[in-house]
Amino acid sequence: MQELQQAEHTNDLWTHWQSTQDRQSRDALVLAHLPLVQKVVRKLSRNWNGVVNDDDLVGMGTLGLIEAIERFDPGRGYEFVTYATWRIRGAVLDGLRNLDWVPRSLRSKAKEMETAYAELEHRHLRSAHDEEVAAHLGVSLNEFQQMLYELSVSPLVSLDGVLPTDEGGQEVRLADTIIDPNAIEPDTMLDRSNVQALLTGVLNRLPDKERLVVTLHYYEEFSFKEIAEILELSSSRISQLHTKAIYRLRGALSRRKQELRA
């Protein structure tokens, strides 16, 4: 009963906002949808190991919520929650990228890892083995494992990271390329179908455990700790599998970008 009353109240707020566009009704809508901001932040926080606290992330997300309310067009055929979630997440990620506190050396390692997977897997048309990637990077297997560890505890490794696209194309997040194909998208991205087709192939080529970690984490929303219990592996091992899977995906898209430029 309480949920029904709350839904009716929210509908009344939307009706008033759409007819008046006054700040008071907009602010009331923001308050009504703050739980959505908190939900998005909780999900993103699982992949964020930086120094920003949840209150800062909520602040970033609230700016995205305000923008969503002001720009939402019900005539486009999708639900506000779908559109707002996309805007909130984008605002948080934009805020984190603007902080740009990650050491340059770590970003350099991330790029080297991405390039190594792209070149090896394009050459062999299969998932590259750890020994092959280590040799390509010119490091020992132990040094390669250390690189994986450093990257796995950084905020660089997530399906919410932005991917390179065709020249002039809009930014695409990895997570946006493997979501339910039946879901309604809030905006049309010009090269989305090409990215989806490419990464679907890469996902299918992932080693079984890496593909399972990606599926459980991003589709089923299990934490690394929960996945570790399911697979009877350590949390650090799950994190490592996740890191390798993400760099395989990023490498494949980087390679595609180079081909399109050629």
UniProtKB/TrEMBL annotation:
Stored NCBIfam families: FliA_WhiG (TIGR02479), PRK06986.1 (NF005413), sigma70-ECF (TIGR02937)
Gene3D superfamilies linked to this entry: 1.10.1740.10, 1.20.140.160
PROSITE patterns: SIGMA70_2
Protein name as it appears in the record: FliA/WhiG family RNA polymerase sigma factor
PANTHER family in the record: RNA POLYMERASE SIGMA FACTOR FLIA, SIGMA FACTOR F FLAGELLAR
InterPro entries: RNA_pol_sigma-70_dom, RNA_pol_sigma70, RNA_pol_sigma70_r2, RNA_pol_sigma70_r4, RNA_pol_sigma_FliA_WhiG, RNA_pol_sigma_r2, RNA_pol_sigma_r3/r4-like
Keyword match Metal-binding: no
Domain spans labelled RNA polymerase sigma-70: 223-249
UniProt keywords, alphabetically: DNA-binding, Sigma factor, Transcription, Transcription regulation
Lineage per the UniProt record: Bacteria, Bacillati, Bacillota, Bacilli, Bacillales
